[in-house]
Design a protein that fits this description.
- By secondary structure, this protein is an alpha+beta fold.
- It contains eight helices and eight strands; from the N terminus they run ααβααββαβββααββα.
- The protein folds into three domains: 70 residues, Winged helix-like DNA-binding domain superfamily/Winged helix DNA-binding domain (Arc Repressor Mutant, subunit A), CATH 1.10.10.10; 91 residues, Phosphorylase Kinase, domain 1; 41 residues, no CATH class.
- The chain has a five-stranded antiparallel beta sheet with strand order 4-5-6-8-7, with helices on both faces. It has a three-stranded antiparallel beta sheet with strand order 1-3-2.
- Helix 2 packs across helix 3, helix 2 packs across helix 5 and helix 3 crosses helix 4.
- It is elongated and about 65 Å long.
- It binds adenosine-5'-diphosphate and magnesium ion (MG).
- Adenosine-5'-diphosphate binds next to strand 4, strand 5 and strand 6.
Length: 229
């Protein structure tokens, strides 16, 4: 999305109800029929249709009209729903620029009680293999894998961060909604951008952190100069 904050401000409370209704409906329907959306959103059929058309033009919903008219949300509207949650819970007061792009995420700066970074997970968009493997172990197979994969990844990351942040030098996790994880902002450059004056001392520091994480039963599976600040 070009500008999350702008898109956010362009939506009404009813739009958020409709997006939330589609999200709920996607647990049972791959494409959520209009009558279910309006019921879940608590809005009249005509109002729902009108607002859904509006959301479709803004590219915040996807639709299919093979057997019936059905809707899905996409990653952009999923981002907006998560942000809506953070704002409603007073955890985020303003949102800033994109400050990073990960292998499977987008990270934005934000303000809450302190400077924050919000990591929007994007798992499942490019690689379905991993998701399929996960899915095979589940009784209730999710109908829309990306939505499930991204929120599961965020939840796992949040749990590990909660467990480690008091002992290991990682950002403090602040809030989670769906696939979005808000944490404290870490100032400073990534290790791949700088040359250390004393690399051996740097290595000692890093291995110290690795050791403390291991003490908590956690091994970082992707430790590289791109993941150290
Ligand atoms: N708490 C944070 N404070 C500042 N920048 C961050 C923070 N978290 C992530 N970033 C930036 O976003 C980039 C991607 O985040 P990362 O967690 O590595 O994503 P991924 O797991 O998808 O690789 C990082 O390399 C960094 O530049
Ligand atoms: Mg990374």
């Amino acid at each position: 999305m070009e500008n999350l904050a702008e898109a956010f401000l362009g939506l009404s409370r009813e739009d958020f109800s409709l997006l939330g209704a589609i999200e709920t409906g996607m647990r049972t329907h791959e494409w959520v029929p209009t009558f279910i959306i309006s019921k879940l959103a608590g809005l009249s059929a005509s109002k729902s249709e009108y607002r859904l058309q509006h959301l479709f033009e803004k590219k915040l919903v996807v639709r299919e009209a093979q057997h019936y008219l059905g809707y899905q949300i996409n990653f952009d509207s999923y981002d907006l729903l998560a942000l809506y949650d953070f704002v409603r819970r007073d955890q985020v007061k303003s949102i800033g620029e994109r400050i990073g792009v990960g292998k499977e995420s987008i990270v934005l700066g934000a303000q809450g009680y302190a400077s924050l970074a919000i990591k929007f997970h994007r798992q499942g968009r490019t690689s379905f293999k991993h998701v399929r493997r996960l899915r095979d172990h589940l009784k209730d197979k999710p109908r829309v894998p990306w939505l499930y994969a991204a929120s599961l990844a965020a939840r796992r990351e949040y749990q590990v961060m909660e467990k480690l942040y008091s002992k290991v030098s990682i950002p403090r996790p602040v809030a989670i909604s769906r696939h979005a994880l808000a944490m404290e902002y870490v100032p400073g450059p990534l290790l791949n951008r700088i040359t250390l004056e004393d690399p051996e001392d740097g290595l000692r520091l890093i291995l110290g952190e690795v050791g403390r994480a291991l003490g908590q039963g956690i091994i970082h599976a992707d430790l590289s100069e791109f993941n150290i600040m």
